[in-house]
Specification:
Strand order of the largest sheet: 3-2-1-4-5-6-10
Radius of gyration: 20 Å
Distance between the termini: 53 Å
Bound molecules: nicotinamide-adenine-dinucleotide, thymidine-5'-diphosphate
Low-confidence stretches: none
CATH superfamily of one domain: NAD(P)-binding Rossmann-like Domain
Largest sheet: 7 strands, parallel
Structural class: alpha/beta
Mean pLDDT: 97
Order of helices and strands: EHEEHEHHEHEEHEEHEEHEHHHH
Strand content: 15-25%
CATH topology of one domain: Rossmann fold
CATH architecture of one domain: 3-Layer(aba) Sandwich
CATH class of one domain: Alpha Beta
Helix content: 40-55%
């Protein structure tokens, strides 16, 4: 069936992979990418599909209710996949209010617009909210987050995402808005802005700069290849049960220090450097305030209900990712020009 699908945040890291998947896999869908193009949004992420007849781009702010209302009135979307967000924990510690605006107010703005245009014919409509495992808080050395784990967000970023998740569910219960949610673990892969751990370290290794590991590097994250997240979103979008939440994870936990050491080994190989060269760049810096110790996901619900599993093995995905950053130097140069240096200096020089 034909559908007009709004994808918010489609110029960002995960959003660009979701846009590409939907535009290429569903030529009979019209895909509209709405993005404000903040520092994290980059249309260069989508040059391969930008001329596709079923794709269009709109620049705009999800917080701007009159703009969003008129866009929904004009386009009469059948579905929304909502990824637009401020997404970096460290920035949320420096500037929480921006996260409240975009992640909470922006989400309610979209929910309001969807509610109004779908109120007489909600059948077949869907508001898909993309969220994070960070809403569940921090684990000790054992255990995993399930869909039923109580929320316990501990950073301004995760608190803003938790709040938006609650509001999406509230619109489902109060207004019968057809919604679905997913909470995913850390993504890695091409097109991630180099403020996040892996692309930042790739950039620094290339330039022989220190690799800032927070605290003792003991914190643990579960890593999933970004294309596998996009494939999970596709499955949930088409076959997920309305009103439900699905956890998505890679079953692939790494301590930060071990992960950075592994990255150093792969980088040495790709750059033809002697083994052990990049590892010497590792530098322990002041820990992140309130740094969550460990995240881990129990993804059995999506596996049992929808048959989703990660398709890319970590060694393969990691190697592919490093290869991508090294063969897309122009991309890395373009996103690290401008305000990146100022951000970097403010974030790391004082650590
Ligand atoms: P990102 O920071 O790379 O991209 C966010 C995009 O949203 C950018 O293109 C930006 O321009 C756009 N945007 C920001 N504010 C906007 C606004 N007010 N109006 C319109 N567009 C705006 O983020 P990402 O890593 O791709 O994450 C996408 C979503 O997935 C987020 O909702 C995030 O919480 C969630 N998520 C991310 C991860 C991860 O590991 N990166 C894991 C789980 C969930
Ligand atoms: P990040 O990529 O920012 O994702 P998140 O905080 O959402 O998990 O960070 C991943 C882990 O790496 C996290 O435990 C913080 C740590 N980290 C560093 O040690 N150094 C860095 O420079 C950055 C950006 C992150």
């Amino acid at each position: 069936m034909d559908k007009k699908v709004l994808i918010t945040g489609g110029a960002g890291f995960i959003g660009s992979h979701v846009v590409r998947l939907f535009v290429t896999r569903y030529p009979h869908y019209q895909v509209v990418n709405l993005d404000k193009l903040t520092y994290a949004g980059n249309l260069a992420n989508l040059t391969d599909i930008e001329k596709a007849p079923n794709y269009s781009f709109v620049r705009g702010d999800i917080v701007d209710q009159p703009f969003i209302d008129s866009l929904f009135e004009k386009e009469k979307f059948d579905a929304v996949i909502h990824l637009a967000a401020e997404s970096h924990v460290d920035r949320s510690i420096t500037n929480p209010l921006e996260f409240i605006q975009t992640n909470i107010v922006g989400t309610v703005t979209l929910l309001n617009a969807a509610r109004h245009i779908w109120k007489d014919s909600p059948e077949g409509k869907l508001f898909y909210h993309v969220s994070t495992d960070e809403v569940y808080g921090s684990l000790g050395e054992t255990g995993q987050f399930r869909e039923t784990t109580p929320y316990d967000p501990r950073s301004p970023y995760s608190a803003s995402k938790a709040s938006s998740d609650h509001l999406v569910r509230a619109f489902h219960h109060t207004y019968k808005l057809p919604v679905v949610l997913s909470n995913c673990s850390n993504n890695y892969g091409p097109n991630q802005f180099p403020e996040k751990l892996l692309p930042l370290c790739i950039h620094n290794i290339k330039n022989n700069k220190p690799l800032p590991v927070y605290g003792k590097g003991e914190n643990v994250r579960d890593w999933l290849y970004v294309v596998d997240h996009a494939l999970a979103i596709d499955m949930i979008f088409h076959r997920g049960r309305v009103g439900e939440t699905y956890n998505i994870g890679g079953n692939n936990e790494w301590q930060n220090l071990k992960l950075v050491i592994k990255l150093c080994e792969i980088m040495d190989r790709h750059l033809g450097r002697e083994k052990g060269t990049s590892e010497k760049l590792i530098t322990f810096v002041t820990d992140r305030a309130g740094h969550d110790l460990r995240y881990a996901i129990d993804a059995s619900k999506i596996r049992k209900e929808l048959g989703w599993e990660p398709s890319v093995k970590f060694d393969e995905g990691f190697d592919k990712t490093v290869g991508w950053y090294l063969s897309n130097e122009e991309w890395l140069a373009s996103v690290t020009s401008g305000s990146y240096q100022k951000y970097y200096d403010e974030m790391y020089l004082k650590r």
